[in-house]
Amino acid sequence: MLQDINTDKQKMEGLKLVIAAMSKGENVSELFPDVVKLVGNSNSEIKKMVYIYLIQYAEVEQNASLLAINILKKNISNSNQLIRAQALRTLSSFRVKMIIQVMMASITGGVKDSSPYVRKTSAHAIGKMFSLDPGQKDALVECIDRLLKDRSPMVLGSAVAAFEEVCPDRYDLIHPNFRKFCEILPDVDEWGQVTLLTMLTRYGRTQFVDPEKEKPKPADDKKDDDDYLAALSGAPGEELDSDHRILLNAVLPLLRSRNPAVIQSIAVLYYYLAPTPEKHKVARALVRVVRSPREIQYAVLVTIRAIATTNADIFHPYLTDFFVDISEPNFTRKIKIDVLTLLANESNIDRILREFNYYTSREEKEFVAEVIQAIGKCAVRIPEVTDRCMIQLMQLLGSKSEAVVAEAVVVIKQLLQMPVNVEGSQNDDVIKQLTRLFDKVKNPKARSSIIWVVGEYLDKVSAYAPDILRQLAKEFADSDDVVKHQILNLGAKLMIKNPEQSGLIFQYILNMARYDVNYDIRDKSRLMRHILLNPQEKFKVLNAHARNLFVTAKPAPLIPLPTHSRFNIGSLAQIINQTTANYLPVPEWSEVVMNAEERKVPET
């Protein structure tokens, strides 16, 4: 037993074994009575290990943990700031409601401690206390208010984290400290900067007006702040509200941070708060982070993709940074392809298409399919480059890879359906070349696309269409369901336009479809038979409108394009596309500049 060991050295060795077993996931709660008795030991190393153990098992052994309360309360008053902080951290980690008042008193005393390290620990304890007993919110808000006024950079990040968890909408606590936050921001620890930047992004949206709109001026007079503003912003006479400008200028030095999360947070702040002409300032630093390890790279690329949906121009100078490397994982390749699609314009489309053409020579079928789809998306996004994209797709039809040809056929078919597509002789050439590929292409989706093109443009391929239908009739029984549907559609159209040549073939197809295992195909064939071939008088009305039913304009397909996320850019919710715990959406812009007078530097 630990209490029977006489020397501190032996006790330390025993505790190390206990902590090691605990870190491996083993249950060592049965040792709780022995360990808790060591909490009063004067050796600081023993205290640390005992505190670690208590934090882990105090909730399980609530009654036994009460033995340590008095000693922890005593240690909170210790002359050593490290002992005070450790005791407060341990006490606040107890999930025991019987000692809430003791915990609350310790936190209240901790926020007034002379040591910034203890005050920082108190800020961390506030969130734990709030999760244990939300009824203490009012008292905790008072503690947060005091911590937000703290001048120590060590305390500020943790204080804002407590603010975000307990009272994220109490912006009245931020007003008098706003300029101090902007001034002290570079001195805050890295993760504290991330928390502070996230909070300031939301704060800016609620207090300032949209810089893209005409901005009303605040009612209060800010002449007495001119010297302060000029010193911090370096640009007097700005169009933006002065505090808005202070915030935007204060975060720029942090773009040199070594922490990718800080850089991403600045990019998010600029996306939501900066005027459009200034958003390019964060692009270079954000692109630099793309070279990070793949987990960080993915998160940053998701942010870049979201920003590029509305501000693609800021990334145009860094186009080559988004070219795909052969060693990258599939999820990184896919998102880079999305970014390149968003960055495409008339001036760089040829370069992007050359890069895409190179990617189509890869072996990974899924990746190649995504690249070919990206070519189609470029054509949809920028109608002026549709011709060049179509030429690129037509060149892919000559590929030796059946997967490449099949995907190119599908994308070409989608482009032919678009309201703005290739016209004239090139359009005719595309259609005719697709019909010539019919024997070569075996992919069901691609074959169905070719059959659709033949049926949609019968006037242009009238010489080939009956022969194609005859060939399709022979292989109908062995075809995929999606192909059978298009065979029925083509047969119906030829029956309407050329019944003498195609009528018997169509009847043969309907007879086979009548006994198909797929009930959709059986129902469809029954419908077509009644409308097109039934001699009964009551079906003649339907037959008269057969052309309107089967030969009519089709709605353009929806080609999915990268779109703006419904979640905050840079958030975990955006990455997983699902609301997360404590998720706070960025609010809409304020209609007027709010609380400008309260943000003035208070007189001292």
From TrEMBL:
Indicate where this protein is primarily found. membrane
Keywords, in A-Z order: Membrane, Protein transport, Transport
* Record GO biological process: intracellular protein transport; vesicle-mediated transport
**What molecular functions are annotated in GO for this chain?**
clathrin binding
Q: Where is this region: Disordered?
A: 209-228
Every Clathrin/coatomer adaptor adaptin-like N-terminal domain range: 7-533
The Swiss-Prot or TrEMBL record describes its family as follows: Belongs to the adaptor complexes large subunit family.
The keyword Protein transport is annotated on this UniProt entry? yes
The GO cellular component terms are: endomembrane system; membrane coat
The UniProt regions of compositional bias labelled Basic and acidic residues, in chain numbering, are 210-222
Under InterPro entries, the record lists: AP_beta, AP_complex_bsu_1_2_4, ARM-like, ARM-type_fold, Clathrin/coatomer_adapt-like_N
Q: What protein am I looking at?
A: Clathrin/coatomer adaptor adaptin-like N-terminal domain-containing protein
Q: Which Gene3D superfamilies match?
A: Leucine-rich Repeat Variant
Q: Where does the UniProt annotation place the signal sequence?
A: none
Q: Give the source species.
A: Arcella intermedia
Residue ranges annotated as transmembrane are none
Q: Where in the cell is it found?
A: Endomembrane system
